[in-house]
């Protein structure tokens, strides 16, 4: 398999891309691959181009959204992402 073929496979599966390229600090502050949990999987599979979410707590929502935005920003030219918080304590 050539490099181009490997990259095509990697970027054809969003879950594979996220879990391969992105790391996150776990609750013990250890760096681990961002392996999506079932709620995060649902977000990856069902999200569209323009979604509005009410943020759930303690399910890794922010991690998966920021990771998803980050991948778009570094791989798709001209991509702009916006995350809005309703107060300074929620950011």
TrEMBL record:
This protein is called what?
Uncharacterized protein
What the entry lists under Gene3D superfamilies is as follows: P-loop containing nucleotide triphosphate hydrolases
